[in-house]
Design goal:
Helix content is 50%, strand content 13%. The chain binds 3'-azido-3'-deoxythymidine-5'-monophosphate (ATM).
């Protein structure tokens, strides 16, 4: 089954969820399936640590820099604005972009740290908005047990992770979202991801 997608139509798909929810795995599985359907696909991952702003985020996550929660989210948002023109150009040329984390990560992690969700949404309104955001929902305890090494500072705090999950669950009630139980096998989740993207396209394109 191929997606109801015109060959020249780009698409922006965001994968969201706690660490270890399978975002990268699912983005790669969807990429492979779309490529086998003859589509051009590009994977992006945020934060992108290769830019100057991304490198600064990396230093902060390793504890080498200390920023308040609002400054951290401004850095994450600025890091995405660095890719704005590229995302627009690439999707306009018909390529499908799959993002491992995007706008909703700032809302979820920022809100979990006491920031205003409306502000976090507002500062991102000039970024390309996703056609669909897929929440790979897992419990914080599952996130913690799946991770074996290198837990960053967010992951040590289960109560923070449950606030992140609550924000994601709230956000996933909006249009253009799909919430999937990601505590299942990767193949089962991948089948639902493909179906959700197809459903979203049918709704959008009528
Ligand atoms: P990755 O592990 O996905 O590279 O992200 C690093 C951390 O950045 C992640 N913490 N955990 N778990 C989530 C956090 N983050 C934000 O707080 N806001 C954002 O906009 C993004 C993209 C990530």
């Amino acid at each position: 089954m191929s997606l109801p997608l015109k060959a020249d139509h780009g698409l922006l798909v965001a994968f969201e969820g706690l660490d270890q929810s399978g975002k990268q795995t699912q983005a790669e599985l969807l990429r492979d399936r779309l490529i086998s359907n003859g589509r051009r696909v590009r994977l992006l991952s945020f934060p992108d640590y290769q830019t100057v702003i991304g490198a600064e985020i990396g230093r902060a996550l390793r504890g080498e820099r200390h920023y308040t929660a609002d400054v951290m989210q401004l850095l994450y948002v600025a890091n995405r604005y660095e890719f704005k023109d590229e995302i627009l150009r690439v999707t306009e040329s018909g390529t499908i972009i799959l993002c491992d984390r995007y706008l909703a990560s700032s809302v979820a992690y920022g809100e979990a740290q006491g920031l205003d969700a409306e502000w976090l949404t507002d500062i991102q309104k000039y970024l390309p908005q996703p056609d669909i955001t897929i929440l790979l929902d897992i419990a914080p305890e599952v996130s913690a047990t799946r991770k074996t090494s290198d837990r960053d500072k967010y992951e040590r705090d289960l109560s923070l992770l449950s606030r992140v999950r609550s924000s994601y669950l709230r956000q996933s009630g909006a249009a253009r979202w799909a919430r999937l139980n990601a505590e299942r096998t990767a193949d089962a989740v991948a089948a639902d991801v493909y179906a959700a993207v197809g459903e979203q396209l049918r709704d959008r394109d009528g």
